[in-house]
Amino acid sequence: MTSNQPADGQSPTLDPDQTSESQAPLPPQRPRLQKLQQIMAKLLNLRGWPWFAAIIMSWLAGITALQWLSGLPPSANCKQLVTTLSETERLECADRLVRKGNPKDIQAALAMAAKWDKGHPLYPRVAILSDEWSRAVLNLARRELDKGNLKEAIGLARQVPEASSMQKESQRLIQQWEENWEAGKESLENARTAIKKQDWAQATLQVRALVQLDDSYWQDQADKILGDMATEKTAFQDLYKAQDIADYGGADNLAKAIQLASKIDPQRLAKEEVQENIEKWSQILLDLSEDYQLNGQFDQAIASAQKIPPNTKAAQEANTVVQLSQAETVAKEGDFYGYLHAWALAEQVDSESALLEKNHERVEGWEEQIQNTGQLHLAKFFANIDTVYTYQMAIDHAALIDTEHPGRVDAQTLIAQWDQQIDTFQDRQILARARQFANQNTTTGYQAAIVEASKVEMGNPLRINAQTLVAEWNGAIEQVEDQPILDQARLLAKAGKLNEAIEIAEGIESDRSLYRQAQDDIYKWVAEIQAVEDKPILNAANALAQEGRLSEAIATASRISYGRALYNEAQDRIASWSTERDAIYAARRPAEQPQVATSEEPSYLPDSSEVAAPPPDPVPQEAPPRPSTDTFAPDPDGEVSRPTVIDPTSE
Fold first, then answer.
1. Residue 407 per-residue DSSP state
2. In the chain, how long is the greatest CA-to-CA distance?
3. 574: number of Cβ within 10 Å
4. What pTM was estimated for this model as a whole?
5. Which residue, of 513, 533, 567, is where some domain finishes?
6. N or C: which end of the chain has fewer CB within 10 A?
7. Alpha-carbon distances, residue 296 vs 287, 299, 300 (angstroms)
């Protein structure tokens, strides 16, 4: 036999009112029987076939009987229309659908089973299936209850037929679920209330009560409550820590407390107490910031107000503190734009704000400052145009500033300046044109500038400025004329033609603007010439000194006259050589020569007071004879001589 079992997804919907039956189609003949018939046909042609046929027939009969006894009836074809299925097949198809666990299919199967009465031949089979389907619907009800869907669970449990043996179990479960639900709800609410009050012992007792309900749903709720208890404890600990920080006082500590409390999950039961504390700390911060603002500590006021969370009741007033403090800060600049900015910030504040009422006088003061500084600002704008008409407009606007306004003094000063600008306007135009001519940096331009500046008449305020510019431009003309001469002289000096350079530079007269530069260059070039001329003399003297002929070296170096470039260097060498020669004379002086000294002479130099005292009258002595300029002092070695050196300064 072959099975005609359909696919699960194509099962037809069962109609419990349908009771008609139909016969299942006969199975086709098996190929094995066909082969046996062929074998039997061949055996008929053999001798002794009757006996052999009897044996074969007996054997086939036994095989067929055994196959018929062990074979199963064919499965119902659930793809056919319900109207073509027998009652047995419809029960089989319904059982297949129930096993898939679809609630609608189970409900349909139970409804179909309720149609059969006890006298029906299939009732025993229906009763067995009805009990199985009732167990299935109760399992579905338990799943719904585990999800917390009590109504759905009870609705499924009530679908158990009254004739089913599971009816009592269904009623018992419904009663148990309803009782457990009420008890569980009460224990759950009590647990949450205990957690909110931080009564952890009572919360633990309520969790035990949930566990004792011996229900999966309430067991899950107990586990959640235990987790919530741990989380709530942490939340309350954070809240207590924030309260401790806030108790220290001060804007920074309050801000830290608010920040810590704000991190607590708003889903926690401590949220109400958390929010109350945040509101309280925010109000304290607001009071501090207002005190700072009224006392002129605007930076501290802004910093404190900005620490208030935006979701608090004090947030709006905190924004008022920030705006008014910022307005005070920009108003300190003391100019038109600062007052205008401050007034604009104050206008954005709610008119019903209590803090704005306290700052009403300041806001009015800014409005007055805007009017006065605005007039002065507009006056300066007109004055920058630099015309007689705009200067007069500037004076008119500056005169509108109140006499009691602090800027009144500045306005009067500017009015005086602008009056002077009007008086000197024509002369300033003349000097401006003169400067334009002078900017050409040519002789013609400077001459035109001088002519133009000379138009400023005597007695005018800018007459001195004009004469100063004329003198400056005259000097510029001289520079333009004499600069080529000085440049030519410098080129010659650079080429080594110093005498020619000096001669050309001396052509710049003493009353010219470049005369001082020319004289500096001439002095430098003369020094270079003298250094070249006198260097051989100084070198020769150095050579004589190295040979020990100090007197000759001194005489040679003395040829460099006073005022020459190497004169100072030569005098330094002469002094050094003279000291060295005197030391030689002192070492060779005879030992028997009497020493002229008295014990009365002090062995130390007198101090300034002793030097200042008048000396005693000198004892007249006969001066030694002075040697002639052509004689020499005795030279012990015959090499060192002392010529008479004539100091050129003595002439």
1. T
2. 204
3. 21
4. 0.39
5. 513
6. C
7. 14, 9, 9
